[in-house]
Specification:
This protein is mainly alpha-helical and 232 residues long. The chain has helices at 15-33, 38-45, 49-58, 63-67, 69-72, 80-101, 103-124, 136-149, 172-190, 194-198, 202-231, and strands at 2-6, 154-161, 164-171.
């Protein structure tokens, strides 16, 4: 399923979302300019679970070098399809979450979800020596927030059915629920396998979505409690 747009319009200009999209595109263009140095660059600025674990357990002086990639990896991508797919999801779902949270809180939320997603991948694959890159963990956090903030929204979706392509509106709660279910099933089936350590970071997606949804639930609870204190 490929989302095309949602039906929730915002009057707030989502300039943080636009900034993030621009930063990801700029970072990818820089990657393309590195030529034979790209592999080393990705290893340095991508999250390598084994490197983080080794630094934490045996070389704490190297820990800062292992922590920085938790932020830089969020802006790196492995190819055009990887980049375009992530930016499409961010463009469609990010603006409404940004308008709800506010610009600065949204930026902190996005980065926090990205870090949490990388931590989830690390916990699931601590012995992996393969660098993990991509904005999908952070964007998964945005999807988790959108899932609870706009459950009645509808997403215009391109759905391939055998040899035919249909464009239909799907409730956001169903679209994102199916998305999360696919990530969870894929992550569960690949857990502990050698291929998982070097393949799609399913648990980063799962962790990002869970943190985004969890933060939203906590925020709603705090707002409700604040209103109750005011009315009593």
């Amino acid at each position: 399923m490929i989302p095309l747009r949602d039906n929730i319009h915002t009057r707030v200009v989502p300039f943080v979302t636009y900034f993030l999209i621009g930063a990801n595109i700029a970072a990818f263009l820089m990657e393309l300019s590195l030529g034979p140095n790209l592999e080393r660059f990705i290893y340095i600025f991508g999250v390598v679970p084994q490197k983080v674990v080794n630094a934490a357990l045996g070389a704490p002086e190297l820990l800062p070098y292992a922590i920085v990639p938790f932020f830089t990896s969020i802006f790196l991508h492995g190819g055009w399809l990887h980049l375009i797919g992530n930016m499409l999801y961010l463009y469609i779902f990010g603006d409404n979450v940004e308008s709800t949270l506010g610009h600065f809180r949204y930026l902190v939320f996005y980065l926090g979800c990205g870090v949490a997603a990388s931590l989830a991948h690390l916990l699931a694959n601590p012995a992996s020596n393969a660098p993990t890159i991509g904005a999908s963990g952070a964007i998964a956090g945005v999807l988790g927030a959108y899932f609870l903030m706009f459950p009645r929204a509808r997403v215009l979706t391109l759905v391939p059915i055998f040899f035919f392509i249909q464009i239909i509106e799907i409730p956001a709660i169903l679209f994102l629920g199916l998305w999360f279910l696919i990530q969870f099933l894929s992550g569960s089936m690949s857990y502990g396998s050698a291929a998982a350590a070097a393949g799609v970071a399913w648990w980063a997606h799962i962790g990002g979505f869970a943190v985004g949804a969890g933060y939203t639930l906590l925020r709603y609870r705090m707002i409700r409690e604040r209103k109750e204190r005011v009315t009593h």
